[in-house]
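Collaboration report, partner site 2.

Our partner group contributed sequences for two proteins of shared interest, and the home lab folded both. The records are reproduced in the order in which they were received, starting with the first partner submission.
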Amino acid sequence: MWMRNRLRWMQQTALVFAMLAIGGLAHAQGFSADWVDSSARSGTPKRNRVFGQNDKMRLETYDDPASPEPSGIVLTDFAQQTALVVFPAQRLYMDIGASKVGFANPMVWQLFRPDSVEDACGGWLKIAAEHGTQMTCKKIGAEAINGRSTAKYQIGGTQSGFLWVDQQLRILLKMEAGGIHLELKNVREGLQSPNLFEIPAGYQRMDVAVKQALANRDIYLDEASGRNHHEESGMHACKQGYAMLGVQIDDNVFLCRQVSNDTSSEESKVDGDPATLRNGMHACPAGWYVRGLRAPSLFHRSKNWLLCSRTASVALGDEGKSEPWTSPSCPWKDILSCPADMQGCPNDRPVMTGMHLALSQSNNAFLCAKIVQ
């Protein structure tokens, strides 16, 4: 369970980490800071530590604020495009790939490290247009945040709110938009020790062979560009007899769970535009479960298509909305088989029946149900 908690922490802080990592590139002499996430999804505001030097970054999180040692660490080398998660208590580390912390998303790069402090709107509006999304932006003026000079901007569209760009570091110092409330505090500029960005001596790499463990189970991963890939009705889907219980949207990876051995009686159809709506989200008709998904680009995810299925041997009940960042039903010992930012249904309602996909993963939501017979 310790590993699942660490991976959940990593996924929840992905955007923040991208913000801070980009800052490291902007300021070669290095810096350290506290970052505070007071978004509603985070509950009690969380204060953690970040260190940057040249193109390397270290992010520390503390489950116990009084502890002298971090609970988890992410080390990223942006020149080499690598990212490692370190588990100090277990003296282990794992390679997650830089894309898992937002490295591969050009919108994240541009948003959190604009080309110009004085005209950040120009770059933001250009990349928003390239991705086909509506966005408004205007500069409000100069404002001091925790003793640092910033340029304040107001944005509208998919995400509405305010952004503050640090004049010296050219990074996003504060963000209040779309339910996200992030801020850098206690920023200190200066040279950082090279040891901060290295794996400590004596730590072991996790055995990646466990990633194959789900292949022969009633739960398996279906990757759009990898193993176990299945396509049906023009979209990526779980195999017949399976329902989706988790999804990693950016990499198009599904976690599929077997719901029936009787595939001959399974009935399927596509629910698209106009979509069936239930509980404020796109859903399969009552009694049907989600088996496949086709979601457009990052900025048009509200318009998606579901492959819905039902079979006479499967009755669903106790449908409800999952909480943000609910862990899908991966067996604990096979946790490495699940992408770090997998979202989905809880163990007590493991069949997905609908979803709401947003620009920010923290705002995604899912309808989930139990099999009652």
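Second partner submission, folded after the first:
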Amino acid sequence: MFYMLKREPTLLRWQADTLKEDIFNDLDDRMKQADATVANVRATVSEVNEMLKTADTLFTRFDAWDRWATTRGSHPFDIREYTEVVKELAVTAGKMNDMLKSSNELLGSSEWDRRIQQVSQLADERMKVAAEQSQRVVHDAFRRVYVAISILFVMFILCLVAVFLVIRRLRIVARNASDADRREMSK
């Protein structure tokens, strides 16, 4: 019991210190969250201020337009103005209709089909010519390679024949020399 009473102030001090640290850590975390919230609120307030400035400019323009429209005396309805606009619109629509008709006639005409077929035939002929020329180039390249390989093969065979003849000749010369040496020794 005495031991527990002696240790209890120390244990209480440790617990109090731990609780203080936990409280301060929680307080620090909450302060950081509060700072982040304040920063978000400031950003939102700044955006709202910008939006209000834009709205103020828009309302100022609208107000100016409204004042201009009311001070400018409006003139009475005149059917002649609308008649002129309708006439101009009719002329424009007629020109547009004529243009559509001519393009439709051009696309539907046999001349257009004949021209398209001509272009298609010319393109096909050019493709055939290009294919033939490329085949000729490839065949010529392979022929040259075959000729070069053949020449190298013939040269190799001629070298072998020459080496064989030289060796044979050297054997004959060596045999004649050894026969001559034997004859001289036997004398």
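Feedback sent to the partner group on the second submission included the following. The chain has three helices and no strands. The helical segments are 2-71, 79-108, 110-186.
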